[in-house]
Amino acid sequence: MDEQRRFVCVTCPVGCNIEARVRDGQVLTIVGNRCARGADFVREEITAPRRMLTTTVRVRGSALPLVPVRSTAPLPKGRLLEVAAHLRGLLLDAPVEEHQLVCADVFGTGVDIVTSRALGVDER
Ligand code: SF4
Q: In what order do the strands lie in the sheet with 3-8?
């Protein structure tokens, strides 16, 4: 039986409402997208959804206890909780540079985790 699925394309700020008809995991039709990138977005959402990850990692020796980190590319959606749990267990030492590598090729995804800002040493 066909399934009708609805999406909001997040590829650009227009945010097209897109409907796709799916049968057995195969995309039959896509309507509502203003450009081809919307169709690519929907196909990826149906077959292998990915998301950017932003979270924090603990830091020792800085005035702030946490540094924001992000993935350098979208990760498979099904791996996000696993990666976030791994990052919760890490502890970096100050100073921390902006774009410092925190985790290379995290869980073999080909995506790195890097810091989003610098944190100096707490001199107090
Ligand atoms: S379908 Fe195209 S125009 Fe619409 S939100 Fe996606 S990228 Fe933007």
A: 3-8, 17-23, 26-31
Protein residues with CB under 6 Å of any ligand 1 atom: 9, 11-12, 14-16, 33-35, 37-38, 41
19-32 residue pLDDT tens: 999 999 889 999 99
Contact 34, 74 (CB under 8 A): no
Tally of CA atoms within 13 A in the half-sphere of 66 that contains its CB? 9
Q: What is the pTM of this model?
A: 0.81
Ligand 1, atom 8, residue with closest C-alpha: 12
Closest ligand 1 atom to Cα of 10:
5
**Whole-angstrom distance, CA of residue 50 vs CA of residue 27:** 18
User: How many helices (H) and strands (E) are present in the chain, helices listed first?
Assistant: 2, 10
